[in-house]
Write a structure and sequence with these properties.
Blueprint: E1 2-5, E2 8-11, H1 27-42, H2 45-65, E3 73-78, E4 81-83, H3 90-99, H4 101-130, H5 136-149, E5 154-158, E6 163-168, E7 173-175, H6 179-197, H7 211-227
Antiparallel strand pairs: 1-2, 3-4, 3-5, 5-6, 6-7
C-alpha cells in the first residue's frame, strides 16, 4: 500500500497487493481491461442516482435563491468553504448555503467522495506496477510518480442539467482522474524514466523482486519504448 502521511508519500513494500491478475499480460491489454472496468463503473446505478439527487437539490435551491443557471456554476472549495470564486452570484449562493445546510453537506460530500475514489485509483495502479517486493529503482520511480499525481484542488460544475466534480489540471478544470487515466499517465512517466535513466528491468542478485513482477515490468518497459516516439 502507498501510505500518505503529513503530505509525504511512503511506499510500504510489506502490504503491496499481488499482481497475479496482470503479470504476464501485455501492457496494452492491461490498459484495455482498465478501460473496460472504468466503463462498467461509469454506468453504476447508485452513482447515477446520487447525481440525479444532486441535480434536483441544486436546481430547487438555486431557483428559490433567485440564482440563474446558465451560465454554469463553478463551485470551488477553499479555506472559506464552498463558493463561486469571481462570480457575482456568490453572495446569493452563500445565503443559499446558509439556508440549506443539508445541501452544503451534500456538495462537500461529493468532493470528498471524488477525492477518495481518485486516491484509491492511483494507489491501485501503483500497486499493480510495484508487485510484491519492488526494488529500489521501482520504489523511487513510484514515489516520484505518486507525488506528481497528487491533487487536492477540486470543484463542482453545474450547468442546470448535469453536475460533476472536476479536478484542476495543468491548464484548466478537467474530469477527476480514474484508474484508466492513471494507467496511461504511468506509461508516459515510465517512458520518460527509461529514456532519462536508461533503466533496465534486469534482476539484480541482491534484489528481492520476483521473476513474475520483473516480467510484468519488462512488458511495461517494452510497451513504453514502443510508444516513446509518439509520447
Amino acid at each position: 500500500m502507498l501510505k500518505v502521511a503529513n503530505g509525504t508519500t511512503v511506499l510500504d513494500s510489506q502490504t503491496l497487493t499481488p499482481v497475479s491478475n496482470v503479470v504476464g499480460t501485455p501492457f496494452r491489454e492491461v490498459l484495455a481491461s482498465v478501460k473496460t472496468d472504468a466503463a462498467a463503473n461509469a454506468v453504476d446505478v447508485s452513482a447515477l442516482s446520487s447525481q440525479a439527487a444532486a441535480v434536483a437539490a441544486l436546481s430547487t435551491a438555486l431557483s428559490q435563491a433567485g440564482i440563474s443557471v446558465p451560465p454554469a456554476l463553478r463551485i470551488t472549495s477553499g479555506p472559506n468553504g464552498l463558493e463561486l470564486s469571481g462570480d457575482k452570484r456568490n453572495d446569493k449562493f452563500q445565503a443559499m448555503l446558509q439556508a440549506n445546510p443539508a445541501l452544503q453537506s451534500q456538495l462537500s460530500g461529493m468532493i470528498s467522495q471524488a477525492d477518495m475514489s481518485r486516491k484509491a485509483a492511483l494507489n491501485a495502479v501503483a500497486n499493480d506496477f510495484a508487485g510484491k517486493n519492488p526494488g529500489a529503482g521501482a520504489t523511487a520511480f513510484l514515489e516520484d510518480f505518486m507525488d506528481d499525481e497528487k491533487n487536492d484542488t477540486y470543484s463542482i460544475s453545474f450547468n442546470g442539467a448535469n453536475v460533476s466534480v472536476d479536478e484542476m489540471g495543468k491548464k484548466a478544470w478537467e474530469p477527476v482522474k480514474d484508474k484508466a487515466d492513471f494507467t496511461k499517465d504511468l506509461l508516459v512517466a515510465y517512458t520518460g524514466y527509461l529514456l532519462t535513466h536508461q533503466a533496465t528491468v534486469e534482476k539484480d542478485k541482491n534484489d528481492k523482486e520476483s521473476d513474475a513482477d520483473l516480467d510484468f515490468r519488462a512488458k511495461l518497459a517494452k510497451a513504453a519504448q514502443e510508444t516513446a516516439g509518439t509520447v
